[in-house]
Write a structure and sequence with these properties.
The protein is of the alpha/beta class and about 325 residues long. The protein is built from 10 helices and 14 strands. Helix 4 runs parallel beside helix 5 and helix 8 crosses helix 10. The termini are far apart.
Amino acid sequence: MTTIKFAILGCGIISVSHAEGIRSTPGAELTAVCDIHEASAKKFGESYSVPYFTDYELLLARKDIDVVCICTPSGMHAEQTVQAARAGKHVICEKPLAIRPDDAERMIRACREQGVKLASVLPRRMTPAARYVKRLIEEDRLGKLSLCSGYARFYRDQAYYDSAGWRGTWEMDGGGAMMNQGIHTIDLLQWLVGPVAKLTGHAYTVLRNIEVEDTAVAVLTYRNGALGVLEITTTAYKQPDHQIIIHGDKGTVILTGDEITSLAFVSEPVEIPSFPAVSSREGHRLQIEDMVHAIRDNREPIVSGEDARSGLALIWGTYESSRLKQEIRIV
């Protein structure tokens, strides 16, 4: 089989997960890395024995690159994805895919027009526990859904936001607790339950000295008639960082992290299944592996650009609802 060759743009902390994922995926190979800071690019390239670049256009000019992993600050994703698409490269973009709706549309359109694939890094869909819950819902084991909620309770102190000038800003971060931490829970909740029709939200800066929100809540109405809530914060100390609770007329399931912590059916006993946890690095590897197969099989990635945009619509909708103090319909 043809080896799929990858490059990494942005040599910060998250790039290690991409590099290790590429290195441990059969049929994938890391070919080059790029960062505007030469010291970072050089150190990273040398650690993986690949050429390094500081000029993105020179990187894209290489013929031995099939996929670019974009690991730069969120506000740079749109333009860099469009550039990659125009160079004929497939893209795996770190979350969030984009920080503005028009940027997401531009990215998706550019990749579609150039015939390249676009994936966003939202690996919670790949976990065995999440896939089990998905099957329960698809097989109607929980029945008609009634109340389906997501909770993302993280802790990020002021030092975290002060560690980089772009953190906690609208221009480069695009949002706060929802956009950067809660996005995984939001994506998974909508993937499991279905699309949201409308919401009412509040997003505020409660404790941290940042431009964007550190705490947000939203009341959801799904297209299937179910209701739900989102609670997302970076001010919750030592709490489960990710939890989804789904109720239906036949049963209830609670997914906490990568573990099913409660499962009950109205009319039958059940033993709660056990699944292995999936580390962040393994989640990245699974998405890299999926891109390899998507290219070879000429199919969409499991988390496509359109999929990522659907979750982002809830975030943008919450921000708009909070600003306008009114219910927002999700298109």
